[in-house]
Amino acid sequence: MQSDFIELLEESDERYKCYVLKNTVQIFKQSIKDEDLNDVRIYISTTIQLDAIADVIDSYLHWLTECEAVFRNYYENELREKVHKDWFNEIEVYQVDITFNSKEDYGATIACGDNVLQGHIMIIDFDREHIQAIHLNG
């Protein structure tokens, strides 16, 4: 699994090692590949080894492809915007930061855009499999 990651030394510090993926990853329904993989950063606490949480990383990345119900419910209830059937499939992902403090303490911040709130970038803060907040820029 460690061979799937590239450490970004310039983004790492005494608290976190920063990694990008070597291979295509799907976030929501968007495939991120090639040079865009630099926009998906995984920060892992220096107190844990990458190999020790590889299965948690893999599971969380998979969950981020399948989180439509959680995202749709939060979006419609909190932002009070109804979405169409294919809304989740059309979300454009701009940047992903995933942080692992431990196997039990992790989350993500994802910047993306959709066709409902055009002209805005959504910044979504996840705590594990729960949305904490959606901030709108623009």
Q: Indicate the low-confidence ranges by residue numbers.
A: none
The largest sheet, given as strand count, sense and whether it forms a barrel, is:
7 strands, mixed
CA radius of gyration: 15 Å
Order of helices and strands: EEEEEHHEEEE
Alpha-beta content class: alpha+beta
Which percent range describes the beta-strand content?
A: 35-45%
Q: Name the strands of the widest sheet in spatial order.
A: 1-2-5-6-7-8-9
Number of helices: 2
Report the principal-axis shape.
Answer: globular
| Cα separation of the termini | 38 Å
**How many beta-strand elements?**
9
Quick check: average pLDDT?
94
**Helicity range of the residues?**
10-25%
**Could you state the oligomeric state of the chains shown?**
single chain
What key phrases describe this protein's structure?
two-stranded antiparallel ribbon, 138 residues, 20% helix, alpha+beta, seven-stranded mixed β-sheet
Tell me what you see in this structure.
The structure is a single chain. The chain has a 7-stranded mixed β-sheet, with helices on one face. It has helices at residues 50-65, 68-78; strands at residues 5-7, 16-21, 25-27, 30-32, 40-45, 92-100, 106-113, 121-127, 130-137. The termini are far apart. It is built from 2 helices and 9 strands, in the order βββββααββββ. It is an alpha+beta fold and 138 residues long. 20% of the residues lie in helices and 38% in strands. Strand 1 (5-7) and strand 2 (16-21) form a beta hairpin.
